Amino acid sequence: MRKIIFVTGNPHKVREASDILSHVGITVEQNNCGYPELQEDELEPIARFGARWAADKLNREVMVDDSGLFIEALRGFPGPYSAYVFDTLGNARILKLMEGETNRRAIFRCVIGYCRPGGEPYLFSGEVTGEIADEMRGSGGFGYDPIFEVGGATFGEMEEEEKNRLSHRYAALSEFARWLKEKY
Ligand code: ITT
Asked: 87 pLDDT exceeds 80?
């Protein structure tokens, strides 16, 4: 088993990544050291900077995950500001913003950044298209899961394995695992 340090403060991400990567012989270990999150309009520069910063600080190979929910009717909001918006507004206020809106389309994106000490960061991205539900449903998952619907069910209503087969994180981690296998 290969072990990769996952720098994140979010234990839910670690749990999902562990489930997904265990199938390809990789274990992940959470490190909570944090990294400076750049204020950017896109996820990629945030993940790139974070991965390099953490690899150099810890002197270990690391991965980071920057994710965001992009709601079409809100012109991509909250996007890269998803963590801040979740903490300040939360799902109920997002639903309020979406009241009466017929275009419910939204995309969840995940960018995994991987870096070795002194090396260049590599990025792997994945996304899933869904809809913003009319109300919160389900108690599973975390964050925006109760309001993000794919094929009629919210991520919050799904079993963990089901979300982990469909999610933006699964798509990004699959790319990452394929690349790791080819390269190392
Ligand atoms: P780290 O930066 O420490 O990794 P974080 O939770 O702050 O953890 P992000 O900066 O990537 O993560 O913020 C993304 C926001 O979107 C945050 O509020 C998450 O709870 C939420 N989020 C990310 N992935 C999600 C998922 O799979 N389902 C639901 N919400 C998710």
From this structure: yes
**Whether the CB of 79 sits within 6 Å of ligand 1:** no
Q: Is 169 in the pocket of ligand 1 (CB under 6 A)?
A: yes
Digit-coded pLDDT (tens) for 149-179: 999 999 999 999 999 999 999 999 999 999 9
pLDDT of residue 93: 98
Q: What is the pLDDT of residue 152?
A: 96
Q: Determine which residue's CA is closest to atom 4 belonging to ligand 1.
A: 8
CATH number of the domain located at residue range(s) 2-183 in this protein: 3.90.950.10
By the 10 Å C-beta count (0-12 exposed, 13-18 middle, 19+ buried), 117 is classed as: middle
Asked about 145 being catalytic, the answer comes back as: no
Would you kindly state where each structural domain of the chain is located, as residue ranges? Answer: 2-183
Measured by CA distance, the residue closest to atom 19 of ligand 1 is 143
- Over residues 24-46, the pLDDT tens digits come to 899 999 999 999 999 999 999 99
